[in-house]
Amino acid sequence: MREVAIVAFGQSDHVRDSAETSEVEMLMPVLHDVLAQTGLAARDIDFTCSGSSDYLAGRAFSFTMALDGVGAWPPISESHVEMDGAWALYEAWVKILTGEAETALVYAYGKSSPGDLREVLTRQLDPYYVAPLWPDSVALAALQAQALIDAGLTDARALAGIAARSRAAAGSNPHAQLRGEVPAGEVLVAPLRTGDCPPIGDGAAAVVLAAGDTARRLVDRPAWIRGIDHRIEAHSLGVRDLTDSPSTRLAAERAGAFELKGRGGAPMVDTAELHAPFTSQEVVLRRALNLDAPDSTVCINPSGGALAANPVMAAGLIRLGEAAARIHRGASDRALAHATSGPCLQQNLVAVLEGER
Hints:
Helix 4 (85-97) crosses helix 11. 31% of the residues lie in helices and 20% in strands. By secondary structure, the chain is an alpha/beta fold. It has a ten-stranded mixed beta sheet with strand order 3-2-4-7-1-8-12-11-9-10. The protein has a two-stranded antiparallel sheet with strand order 5-6. It is globular and about 55 Å long. It has helices at residues 23-38, 54-57, 63-66, 85-97, 117-120, 137-150, 156-169, 212-218, 246-254, 279-288, 315-328; strands at residues 4-11, 47-51, 78-81, 103-111, 187-189, 192-193, 202-211, 223-232, 271-273, 299-300, 334-341, 347-354.
């Protein structure tokens, strides 16, 4: 199988409201940044894939307008997924594996500020049994958090600790929307407080993928994608155990995360970038990935994670990009990156990234 690596990663500064800039204006500096990192021009990219949501933009085929940021000439081979950009990266990875491309540009963006995000995300729900009840994303996350508390798997103090650790880590992330100490805040939907929930904001991200010797030529230390897989759970929330994420566990197994095991069967990684928009969801993911060993030295969400910046449709791609960037600069040797989509961790993608020793 061909070797494929992330060779460049860039992202915008994530802000609460980017009303003064369009999607294209938000994207263009990010796209220019990742190409400049590699020295590639637009004509050197064999395949381009993007991730975004028409529901956020409020118009059909909104991604075609964002293509202005890529450029209309020369003509490109292009695709789009109505998903987080992590799934666009998966499509580009497959394209390179098949030999149809040597390089790929993947980008994602989301502007949540123009509308009511909690209402928009109800469009993901089962249209027959759940959507008519109009539960929003925070209410559903609160159900999951309460299930964890009732099962004795976490408590309010532990959730507050996750929030504090994530926001403190974001202090060294110049792109984060929230940095430094953030108070627990008031109860938003019990048992979740505002500090347990992600900020609403706008942002974009992009990565460049390359194969084999091309990757080695473009960057000193490529972040090799050793494995990647994604799985989905039942659409109906009523038939799922919200305290567990078997799809995350299975995706990690198929991606090879457990091929090198440490104590307790934990994956042998030094970094885990987990796409956990709510503190309670990090608890679920850590359990699914066996990252909860008392003596674990895995650095979880050193970027601050989605609790520090959560641009919808780009936050998952950012987890892969942040993990890759740590490998590029030598801060990590083997990292696990996770992305999610849908209510209560319904869909999950896991990738294992590795640097050359």
